[in-house]
Amino acid sequence: MHKKIKNMFDEKLTFEKMLQAHHRARHHKAYKHEVINYELNLENNITNLVNNLKNGSYHLGNYFTFKVFEPKERDIKALPYKDRIVHQWYIEEFIKPYIVPKFINSTFACLDDRGTHKAVEEVQKQMRIFKRNYGDFWVLKCDIKKFFYSINPYILFELMKKYIADPKLLSLTHILIFNKSEGPNQVGIPIGNYTSQFFANIYLNELDQYVKRTLKIKYYARYMDDFILLLKTKNDCIIMKKNIEIFLQKSLKLELNSKSRYYPYKMGVNFCGYRIFTTHKLLRTSSKKKIKRNVKIWNKHYSNNSLNLLYALQCLNSWMGHSSHCNSYKLQQKVLSNCDFLFTSHTYQKIEQNLIDDIINYAKTDN
């Protein structure tokens, strides 16, 4: 039986805690007009927000929708700034301390001290242990079809009731989950909300518990809607895939993506941007193609004297950091040598230091 959150809403609803939530929400966004406007009358705005939550008059603002195209086209929905403060308060005061600790150790998305690199390390560790203990094995790799768009808010709210007994907190949870503009047949939760990341994890925690407790799978890892099972035989993969499909459909109204499949471990595991083997890790092919494509674009802009050098270096440094977590030294050197805007190692070091100084100054300004 879950230990539920009881009588905590009023205790956590203070001016100080909401002000802390504001500081978290404004991080890297202090220069935006809506944040600046909110801070012009900060004390009154925070006080009104606390009072609205306390007397039950709080409601969500209207969503602003836009598209992103990396890594694929998605519709992103953003709420007004005051609602993002409430999201920060809700997650930090209730979800993280009371619900996240109930997650299994091998789920990694959107959690403190866990991320893509920790997920990759865990999968490789499991592969090595499995290989040492059982010899050759098979990999069942799955993901959920249109995951965020397929989450059933009614099922999600019933799941939240397993963790929350505080009536006021449950009422706020209902407001955060259900978008009134969608009508009674709403399906999916908005991509872009801070709460959505954690609601999604809570939703698929049901799958984690099923795989670990019912199916008794020891070697399992999940990053959001991508998950890996290590199994002894191909037949085990067929059986487990079928069991998971039935559970997802029956309990969560979800379907596996058609890309979900099983294969021998020697082919490597495509997971979180890397191709993982028991002996080494490589960059995913799409990442190699993307950096080569970007370098060509940057070189073209450089030749036309239109290159945003700071932006290009930020992207390049980000990719260098990502690729440094696998066996990619030769690839890194080749990419750097193809960058026309990096003349010499001395010039690169000088530019890189300027980039670091800019980032530090930006961080100081933001704080």
List its salient traits.
367 residues; alpha+beta; 4-stranded antiparallel beta sheet; 15 helices; 9 strands; 56% helix; globular
Describe it:
The protein is an alpha+beta fold. Helices cover 56% and strands 11% of the residues. The protein contains 15 helices and nine strands. The strands form three sheets. The chain has a four-stranded antiparallel beta sheet with strand order 4-5-3-6, with helices on both faces. The protein has a three-stranded antiparallel beta sheet with strand order 7-8-9. α10 packs across α11 (234-252). The mean pLDDT is 90.
Provide the spatial order of strands within the biggest beta sheet.
Answer: 4-5-3-6
The tally of strands reads: 9
Q: Could you tell me the mean pLDDT?
A: 90
Query: How would you describe the oligomerization state of the chains in this entry?
Result: single chain
Helix/strand structural class: alpha+beta
Give the radius of gyration: 23 Å
Largest sheet: 4 strands, antiparallel
Shape: globular
Low-pLDDT segments: none
Number of helices: 15
Strand content bin: 5-15%
**Residue share in helices?**
55-70%
Report, as a whole number of angstroms, the end-to-end distance: 43 Å
Helix-strand topology string: HHHHEEHHEHHHHEEHEEEEHHHH
Helix and strand arrangement:
Elements: H1 9-12, H2 15-25, H3 33-40, H4 42-55, E1 64-68, E2 74-78, H5 81-99, H6 116-134, E3 138-143, H7 147-150, H8 153-161, H9 167-177, H10 194-214, E4 220-223, E5 226-231, H11 234-252, E6 261-264, E7 269-271, E8 274-276, E9 281-283, H12 285-303, H13 309-323, H14 329-337, H15 345-366
Antiparallel strand pairs: 1-2, 3-5, 3-6, 4-5, 7-8, 8-9
